[in-house]
UniProtKB/TrEMBL annotation:
<dbReference type="Pfam" id="PF04542">
    <property type="entry name" value="Sigma70_r2"/>
</dbReference>
<keyword id="KW-0805">Transcription regulation</keyword>
<feature type="domain" description="RNA polymerase sigma-70 region 2">
    <location>
        <begin position="25"/>
        <end position="90"/>
    </location>
</feature>
<dbReference type="InterPro" id="IPR013325">
    <property type="entry name" value="RNA_pol_sigma_r2"/>
</dbReference>
<dbReference type="InterPro" id="IPR039425">
    <property type="entry name" value="RNA_pol_sigma-70-like"/>
</dbReference>
<dbReference type="InterPro" id="IPR013324">
    <property type="entry name" value="RNA_pol_sigma_r3/r4-like"/>
</dbReference>
<dbReference type="InterPro" id="IPR036388">
    <property type="entry name" value="WH-like_DNA-bd_sf"/>
</dbReference>
<feature type="domain" description="RNA polymerase sigma factor 70 region 4 type 2">
    <location>
        <begin position="120"/>
        <end position="165"/>
    </location>
</feature>
<dbReference type="InterPro" id="IPR013249">
    <property type="entry name" value="RNA_pol_sigma70_r4_t2"/>
</dbReference>
<protein>
    <recommendedName>
        <fullName>RNA polymerase subunit sigma-24</fullName>
    </recommendedName>
</protein>
<dbReference type="GO" id="GO:0006352">
    <property type="term" value="P:DNA-templated transcription initiation"/>
</dbReference>
<keyword id="KW-0731">Sigma factor</keyword>
<comment type="similarity">
    <text>Belongs to the sigma-70 factor family. ECF subfamily.</text>
</comment>
<keyword id="KW-0804">Transcription</keyword>
<dbReference type="InterPro" id="IPR007627">
    <property type="entry name" value="RNA_pol_sigma70_r2"/>
</dbReference>
<dbReference type="Pfam" id="PF08281">
    <property type="entry name" value="Sigma70_r4_2"/>
</dbReference>
<dbReference type="InterPro" id="IPR014284">
    <property type="entry name" value="RNA_pol_sigma-70_dom"/>
</dbReference>
Length: 182
């Protein structure tokens, strides 16, 4: 299944041959879709993103003269679409937070001092995390980076990023759960 595409298939792909496109599709679709599922956590979203990448590939078929170029294009295309997906999700969350703020404006004005205390407690709890946990937590939640991006930046395995994130969340739950202000 990991056989390289032959020269005839690549040439056919460049010329828009549907059979050649099907060969490329069969070789890469499942691999790419499963990689996207890992990044977005939704099979439906992964299928949409993967389909968009293959559509973009097909629209540019004359440009591709090698399998490695096809593969790089697909993975780059998918990576960019996953980043855009998370940016959209982040904007949705921001909009929901803003909506909640507007709806609760009166209540928040009356309880502004509580809000300040809660934020101070949260900040203090985050700053008291072990250094690696704190660094990973801030990169994930403040900077909005993906675990893969954090792993690349810190040059650590992605599994360690997940472990440090879980550890930070557990510590914060314990610390903030004991705080009477929350």
């Amino acid at each position: 299944m990991d056989n390289k595409l032959d020269r005839e298939t690549i040439t056919g792909f460049q010329q828009g041959d549907p059979t050649a496109f099907q060969a490329v599709y069969r070789k890469y679709y499942v691999k790419i879709k499963m990689a996207v599922v890992d990044k977005v956590g939704s099979m439906a979203e992964a299928e949409d993103i993967t389909a968009e990448a293959f559509k973009a590939l097909y629209e540019r078929h004359p440009q591709f003269d090698s399998e490695s170029y096809i593969r790089r294009f697909l993975y780059t295309c998918v990576r960019n679409r996953v980043i855009n997906y998370w940016k959209r999700k982040q904007l949705q969350i921001i909009r929901l937070i803003e909506l909640g703020r507007r709806m609760n404006d009166d209540a928040l004005q009356n309880n502004e001092f509580i809000k300040i205390e809660v934020l101070e407690a949260l900040h203090k709890a985050i700053e008291s995390l072990p250094e690696e946990c704190r660094k990973v937590f801030k990169m994930l939640f403040y900077d909005g980076l993906t675990p893969a991006e954090v792993a690349d930046i810190l040059q650590i395995p992605i599994k360690k990023v997940y472990r440090l994130k879980a550890m930070a969340q557990k510590i914060l739950r314990i610390k903030l759960g004991d705080d009477d202000r929350l």
